[in-house]
Amino acid sequence: MKTRFLLLPCLLAATPSFAQSAQSTTGLERVADGDDEIVVTANREARPVDTVGQAVTVLDTATIETRQAVVVSDLLRQTPGVTVTRNGGIGTTTSVNIRGADSDQTVALIDGVKLNDPSSPGGGFNFGNLLIGNIARIEVLRGAQSVLWGSQAIGGVVNLITRQPTEELAINARAEGGSFGTGQAFANVSGKSGAVSASLGGGFFTTDGISAYAPGREKDGYRNYGANGSVAVALADNVSVDVRGFYSNGRTEIDGFPAPTFSFGDTREVGNAEQWTGYTGLNAALFDGRFRNRIGYAHTFEQPHQHRSRRHADRNLPGQRAQRPDRLSGIVRRHRRRLRDLRRGT
Predict the structure, then answer these.
(1) Which of 72, 105, 230, 306 could form a disulfide with 101 if both were Cys (CB 3.0 to 4.6 A apart)?
(2) Which helix (H) or strand (E) holds 231?
(3) Could you report the per-residue pLDDT of 206-225, keeping only the tens digit for each?
(4) Euclidean distance between the first and final Cα of the chain, in Å?
(5) Between the CA of residue 181 and those of 71, 210, 221, 270, 313, what are the distances in Å?
């Protein structure tokens, strides 16, 4: 479903209390550079961490690279006060609970733009398809934050910050491969030319996986590709335009409850999920930055898991015979031939 909202101007820089605004690119660039002493989620603007009264955990680029995680939920699982529940392997439904609150009371952000779909039951967010990819920093804000991030932020807030534009040309790329047909490749390019600064990236992940059904022999794999982008244009010394976007498309192979026993076992079912978000905003700073205004527009789209059977062209499950669409018509033809032979014999 789609969520649209208009971002109102922020009249006072010292009181960023509008619950639906996104952080400015300037603030995101400061924290994305790896400054652990600055946080951007607690007060909706870049602030020194020692001036923030909330409990904040920062996972910077060095920490993310050291832990070598593939999905965001694996990093969050190691964060104090955070509980992660996943229904299977990579790509399956994943919920995040903060300080014991319900998963529907956790707000998820990507570059300051809210990902939660208010039209879904409870308004919770599925973290299953969020890969590390080109994410440079994660801030986990624990405790009720309804004043800043809306009534849903009872448990806390998870803010994912992608690689932001840089002054100099920077290229980040990596590729990995391993067992079970697992492989991934990600790349990001950032730089600045004149008044335009940009950061663009994309990635792909795939794995054959193993069967979700313990005694099963049919593998349940996963595939995901995505992209991220951030562009800032300085129209004047105190006026700028921000454009950001994020896209993710995942395909998860799952097991189910096939007939005739309807007990859990190997099936040829898959789930497809798609997520994307976009933001554009106009920033203006007056009176030497003491009077800031920002007006913007954000659009979030999340297509939840849609389950369907895999194509007939896929290989048959181990121990199962091929199911031809014309099987019934073949049986009918054989019975007709037998009936014809019986008539000729009489």
Answers:
(1) 105
(2) strand 220-236
(3) 999 888 888 888 888 999 99
(4) 68
(5) 17, 10, 9, 18, 20
